Amino acid sequence: MRALLFFVLLPPKNRSAMYKFRFVDLLCGIGGFHQAMASLGGECVFACDIDESCRDTYFKNYGIMPKGDIAKVASSEIPPHDVLCAGFPCQPFSKAGSRQGFKDSIKGTPFLDILRILAYRQPKYALLENVRNLATHDNGFTWRTIYDSLTHFGYQLLPDPIIFSPHYIGIPQHRERVFIVCARKDIGEIPPFAFNDKEIPLCNIGSILQSDSEIMNIERYKLTGEQTRLLDLLDEFIRGIDRKRLPGFPIWSEWLCDADVDRVGGDVPKWKRNIIRKNTELYSQNSQFIDEWLRKARHCPLFFGAKAKLEWQVGQVDNPSVWDNIIQIRPSGIRVKPGTYFPALVAITQTPIVGREKRYLTLRECARLQSFPDSFIPCSNEKQAYKQFGNAVNVDCVKTFAKYMLGDVETRQKYQVK
Fold this sequence. Notes:
This protein is of the alpha/beta class. The chain has helices spanning 32-39, 52-62, 97-100, 102-105, 110-121, 141-152, 225-240, 270-285, 287-297, 363-369, 382-391, 395-406, 409-415, and strands spanning 21-26, 42-47, 83-86, 125-131, 155-157, 162-164, 173-174, 177-184, 251-252, 309-312, 326-330, 333-337, 342-343, 353-354, 359-360. The radius of gyration is 24 Å and the shape is elongated.
């Protein structure tokens, strides 16, 4: 599981003002936390990350060379600070903790290092960020361990994690993450946070796209002729089949045929057998068109394996087209999602394709999806840069919770439980 963020803020004298504070950026990545905290008046006094490439990118942008492995940094080496930011991989905690206590369950995890520094420096506030799965991971054991650990070390936090996404605040990326807001018990309680998912603003992918004239060497982002031909074939398929109901299940071309599903091997799991059945039924309803389409598709060099599978996740629309939407080439197939906002950036190579532009997202566009400013300098290794943005925390989401915690009037009015 992905990075977890801790956040500490000084209580403002004026509820709407952002005051100066000192923060440390532990397990910092490329500084998504840094961007948010510095924009609110924070001064970074220490940073660390185990990844050398991330450290280099951090230094290029902030002039601070992070230290390495947090496990090798003594708590006394961390300077005094007001704000503690930290990200850590949330690997499964030991089930032994359910019998022997949370101290046993967190052994060997970076979370233990975070706790020892929190205990040593005792910051006033904390904000945690992690993948959505944290809320239910390991039947709730992981969340309960985190909750009990922080409570034990003197922090009050809401009993449930908050699930939030950039597209909730108008950034065209669907990236649900868990945020956990904490306060040291002697400081006061965190007001309950609520979000009305019926008031999500409209997103526009054009808000983060670069114009062709802004993109140096644009051809390197454009689809190849063979890729375009492959996606043209899938577009022809989605346009040509019976449109009374577009398929909401994966299209597996090898099962677009007459087949007796009952004769499929007994070791095939039920879910897979169900998909096969739906594919054969789709074929029986569109056999003449599909036979002709398959003859054409098999002449395309890229039409094999996962690239011969289609995941249409746009739903029921008039005049459907692959090119009107967002496309990802994934191990499970070619996924097509609505062209309203992008799927979550990930660290592995699944860079989204902008259908209407027939090209991949640029690094600058990925930076914008994570709310990094255009002044941010990405890693010179493009593959590493895409990975780093995929791992980063969204800056504006962090700022939203920071302002909520600082008592910003507008933010509190919008999100505090009435």
